């Protein structure tokens, strides 16, 4: 168990006031009213005491910590306070030296607590804190997140926080105790036979047929075929043979995932040496989660195989129809002559036989032959489903094992025939007599299959099996049936916080941006809708870029917003001032600034310090993965470390969690630079996907016109308005909207500040996403393709003014929302508390027949219409969205330049390693942005010091994503002794010429 919760940098971030405190924070926590001024000046004649009292008041409001002499107070805070109490601070005035008497500090602290209701923590408060920690410890593994949760809860109660070391100890003790209790509970449930099976699984080398060591179990094949399906079925059967099935539903989804991830990252020999009481419970959870993952893969493999076979049959059918058409119409000139004769005779009332003779048709034999051949070919035509019979042998290679493994249930009566049909096929496969029972259900068969399944009053066994598998595929896709033992295809209810826990949760509306009752929600949304409709009516004639045409609102396109002065300044700085550098030199220098390599410790050497020689290997492996060059080419380019050394580093040090932590260090320094204040507030973001082709067969890869003839996947990145990437995920193409929620919420976990507005393109658009985003506390603002044709919705009692009556509005069905309002809140609360991922929720909401989905869609339509009314009437909002998405596009351009190896294609089929490469790329991109930002800031300071003042408002148009001055190719040398020192910087180009 790890003993360190927070690094020194994280602890400093929580316990001290940031020196880059924003003006908004000053106005929020340091803007004093009349009562504050009266309390500050009353009885405090001395300037030092007045400032000290005010500083303590600010300190308690801002952090809720006791003020100490170690607290860092920015000079801008002191000056802002002095200005409000009509005082001026002497230039040489040292606040800490003057305000340091313990008695005075304690007296002021007690006076403030008495006046403003702050209080010290008592036993009840400590019990409440322990309960919050215990509740979170059951759900999440991230202990830093738990610390922030407890701090937020105590702040709400106006409790003066204890020392951070005290809170750390609470979290440490409770989490360790919870983990120990969990281990004891699972270990006590194991029988001697199960313990023997676990030992057998640990010692298994995976060399015998159908035997697998622990890590081999998760190695899924890249190409989906009936043969690869059987390989996965072998793994599932091996897991079942261990007989480790037990009820782990009391352990949260995230907790099980994190424990399983620990086993994934541990070496086999390390597992063998661990004590049974500590390692066996983790092995049970790991195997449990692995089986769920493999079962999901089985379901998706069946979907993919059936889809491929259907496509083959459709193409074959299209080819047959084309050939038959050519044969029928090979005598096209004769058919035209006959058609002309018929037309002429009907119009002019002439004899048809006479007209045919004129066109050299003395007999009708030629026409009879054409008609006869046409009927023959028409009768021989078959549809694509009938042609699927030729692929039945491929289906039979895996279908018996699929039906043996898959156990489906459903609460819907409509799905009962399908469930019974699956059971019938399973029993048929297990029996010696491969014959369907006479009472096999048929109600689940789709209409397009009926004529093939039922022939001459009998059931065709082949088509019945194929039709049942097709119906099962659609039912699973639409969440109409539940797959027992699955992760993705469980019933929705099992993914959420249970109703009883939710009912007694007191922080629901502290966490969510919602209302306790549906009536309150409806009243607020109606009021907002009326305001926006009135604004549209009042300004429709004043907005020169908005007009109504054919029932739709139309907009003129936005022009460019980057002034020429900004482009000239950017060119001057990046081409004439910022020094040129190699990529490995940038990595070394940024590591000297923030020390992000400290997170890449070998998994078996926790709490150790990374040696300089190891740093070189880490940076080399990081660059090899991020640039997609690969470890072999990197070892050859360096000529210093072998492939085996770099491979060991990549496997044992570079995982997705560590890369995200390292990224957080880089991001925090970037946010602290004054130049980043011109790019945005750091609370808006955008997301965009970049297609990546795959050089090998991969489960993630699928056909996409943008990839040409190759299959590929998508790297979906989230970019803050300050240009850094804070969330990266490798996903399947065309599923971007499912990952928006997880990406947005990840920002607060990384930097401690939530995103309040998020922009996407059409690929990230979804109606349910609008409703959930509003409840989760951020505004969802997509730039939708053909926005003028999007449906707008209003409430039934909304009255439109005459000048906007021409706009076509549909009605919102609020009854759906009313019936499911509490359930929607529970879903949002479950996501926010980390009990279930947003991706899983959004994927399950794809079932269009679900009543719950309909309710969320109706709520989303309310929020979408409110957004679109703002979008149509606010040029500023459209500009913000455009700028945000342009930052994402520029980020993709930088990614393409950095990921130059292997033509930017993935060379690995493993999804986890693909994710590591994508995260390594994002870390390198953030490192480049930080390095550019530092030298951009130094360049501006140089210009102001040696030339003249510049218009700093132009800086918001200058991006740190420029890479023209960076060299990516060549011989790489990561020798840190040759790089600059910790507090040293390169000379600017203009400084070198002096």
Word description of this protein:
Keywords: DNA recombination, DNA-binding, Transposition. InterPro entries: DUF4158, Tn3-like_transpos, Tn3_Tnp_DDE_dom. GO terms for molecular function: DNA binding; transposase activity. Belongs to the transposase 7 family. With 994 residues, the chain is an alpha/beta fold. It folds into 6 domains: 8-180, no CATH class; 201-307, no CATH class; 316-387, no CATH class; 406-490, no CATH class; 577-661 and 913-991, no CATH class; 681-910, no CATH class. The chain is 56% helix and 6% strand. It has 41 helices and 16 strands. Strands 8, 9, 10, 11, 12 and 13 form a 6-stranded mixed beta sheet that branches. Helix 35 (767-776) links the parallel strand 12 (757-760) and strand 13 (779-782). Helix 13 packs across helix 15. The radius of gyration is 34 Å and the shape is globular. The model has no long low-confidence stretch (mean pLDDT 84).
């Amino acid at each position: 168990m790890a003993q360190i919760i927070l690094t020194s940098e994280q602890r400093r971030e929580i316990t001290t006031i940031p020196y880059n405190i924003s003006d908004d924070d000053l106005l929020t926590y340091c803007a004093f009213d009349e009562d504050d001024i009266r309390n500050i000046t009353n009885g405090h004649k001395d300037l030092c005491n007045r400032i000290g009292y005010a500083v303590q008041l600010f300190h308690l409001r801002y952090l809720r910590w006791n003020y100490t002499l170690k607290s860092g107070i920015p000079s801008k805070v002191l000056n802002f306070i002095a200005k409000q109490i009509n005082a001026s601070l002497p230039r040489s005035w040292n606040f800490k030296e003057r305000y340091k008497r313990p008695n005075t500090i304690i007296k002021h602290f007690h006076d403030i607590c008495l006046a403003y209701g702050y209080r010290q923590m008592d036993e009840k408060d400590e019990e409440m804190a322990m309960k919050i920690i215990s509740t979170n410890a059951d759900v999440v593994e991230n202990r830093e997140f738990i610390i922030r949760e407890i701090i937020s809860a105590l702040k709400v109660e106006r409790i003066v926080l204890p020392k951070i070391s005290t809170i750390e100890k609470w979290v440490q003790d409770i989490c360790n105790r919870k983990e120990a209790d969990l281990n004891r509970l699972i270990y006590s449930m194991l029988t001697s036979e199960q313990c023997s099976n676990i030992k057998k699984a640990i010692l298994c080398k995976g060399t015998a047929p159908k035997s697998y060591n622990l890590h081999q179990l998760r190695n899924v094949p890249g190409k989906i075929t009936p043969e690869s399906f059987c390989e996965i079925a072998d793994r599932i059967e091996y897991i079942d043979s261990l007989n480790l099935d037990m009820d782990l539903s009391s352990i949260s989804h995230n907790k099980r995932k994190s424990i399983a991830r620990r086993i994934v990252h541990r070496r086999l020999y390390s597992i063998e040496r661990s004590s049974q009481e500590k390692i066996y419970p983790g092995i049970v959870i790991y195997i449990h989660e692995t089986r769920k993952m493999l079962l999901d893969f089985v379901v998706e493999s069946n979907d993919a195989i059936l889809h491929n076979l259907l496509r083959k049959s459709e193409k074959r059918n299209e080819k047959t129809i084309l050939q038959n058409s050519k044969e029928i119409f090979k005598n096209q000139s004769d058919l035209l002559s006959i058609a002309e004769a018929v037309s002429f005779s009907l119009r002019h009332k002439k004899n048809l036989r006479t007209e045919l003779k004129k066109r050299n048709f003395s007999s009708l034999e030629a026409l009879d032959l054409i008609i006869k051949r046409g009927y023959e070919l028409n009768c021989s035509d078959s549809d694509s489903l009938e042609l699927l019979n030729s692929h039945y042998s491929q289906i039979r290679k895996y279908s018996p094992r699929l039906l043996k493994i898959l156990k489906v249930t459903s609460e819907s009566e409509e799905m009962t025939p399908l469930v019974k049909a699956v059971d019938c096929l399973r029993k048929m496969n297990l029996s010696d007599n491969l014959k369907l029972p006479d009472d096999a259900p048929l109600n689940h068969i789709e209409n397009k299959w009926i004529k093939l399944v039922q022939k001459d009053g009998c059931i065709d066994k082949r088509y019945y099996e194929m039709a049942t598998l097709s119906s099962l595929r659609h039912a699973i896709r639409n969440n109409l049936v539940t797959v027992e033992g699955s992760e993705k295809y469980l019933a929705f209810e099992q993914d959420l916080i249970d109703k009883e826990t939710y009912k007694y949760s007191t922080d629901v509306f502290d966490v969510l941006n919602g209302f306790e009752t549906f009536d309150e929600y409806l009243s607020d949304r109606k009021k907002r809708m009326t305001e926006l409709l009135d604004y549209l009516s009042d300004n429709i004639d004043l907005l020169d870029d908005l007009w109504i045409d054919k029932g739709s609102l139309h907009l003129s396109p936005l022009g460019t917003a980057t002034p020429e002065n900004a482009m000239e300044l950017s060119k001057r700085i990046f081409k004439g001032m910022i020094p040129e550098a190699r990529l490995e030199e940038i990595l070394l220098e940024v590591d000297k600034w923030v020390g992000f390599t400290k997170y890449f410790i070998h998994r078996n050497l926790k709490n150790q310090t990374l040696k300089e020689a190891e740093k070189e290997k880490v940076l080399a492996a990081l660059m090899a993965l991020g640039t997609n060059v690969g470890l072999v080419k990197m070892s050859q380019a360096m000529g210093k470390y072998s492939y085996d050394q770099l491979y060991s580093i990549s496997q044992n040090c570079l995982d997705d969690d560590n890369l995200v932590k390292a990224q957080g260090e880089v991001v925090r320094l970037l946010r602290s630079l004054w130049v980043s204040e011109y790019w945005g507030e750091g609370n808006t973001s955008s997301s965009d996907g970049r297609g990546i082709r795959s050089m090998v067969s991969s489960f993630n890869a699928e056909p996409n016109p943008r990839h040409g003839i190759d299959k590929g996947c998508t790297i979906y990145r989230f970019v803050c308005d300050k240009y850094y990437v804070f969330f990266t995920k490798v996903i399947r193409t065309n599923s971007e909207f499912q990952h928006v929620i997880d990406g947005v919420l990840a920002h607060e976990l990384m930097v401690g500040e939530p995103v309040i507005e998020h922009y996407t393109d059409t690929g990230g658009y979804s109606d349910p996403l609008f409703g959930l985003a509003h409840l989760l506390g951020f505004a969802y603002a997509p730039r939708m393709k053909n926005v003028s044709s999007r449906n707008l919705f209003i409430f039934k009692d909304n009255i439109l003014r005459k000048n906007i009556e021409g706009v076509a509005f549909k009605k919102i069905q609020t009854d759906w929302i009313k019936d499911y309002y509490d359930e929607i809140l529970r879903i949002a609360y479950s996501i926010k508390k980390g009990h279930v991922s947003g991706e899983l929720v959004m994927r399950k909401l794809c079932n269009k027949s679900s009543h719950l989905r309909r309710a969320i869609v109706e709520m989303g339509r309310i929020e979408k219409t409110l957004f679109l009314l703002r979008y149509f009437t606010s040029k500023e909002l459209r500009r913000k969205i455009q700028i945000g998405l342009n930052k994402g596009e520029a980020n993709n351009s930088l990614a393409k330049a950095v990921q130059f190896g292997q033509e930017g294609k993935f060379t690995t089929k493993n999804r986890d390693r693909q994710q590591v490469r994508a995260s390594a790329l994002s870390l390198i991109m953030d490192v480049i942005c930080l390095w550019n930002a530092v030298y951009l800031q130094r360049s501006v300071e140089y210009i102001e010091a040696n030339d003249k003042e510049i218009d700093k408002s132009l800086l918001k148009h200058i991006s740190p994503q420029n890479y023209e001055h960076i060299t990516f190719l060549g011989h790489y040398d990561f020798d840190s002794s040759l790089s600059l020192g910790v507090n040293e910087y390169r000379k600017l180009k203009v400084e070198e010429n002096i």
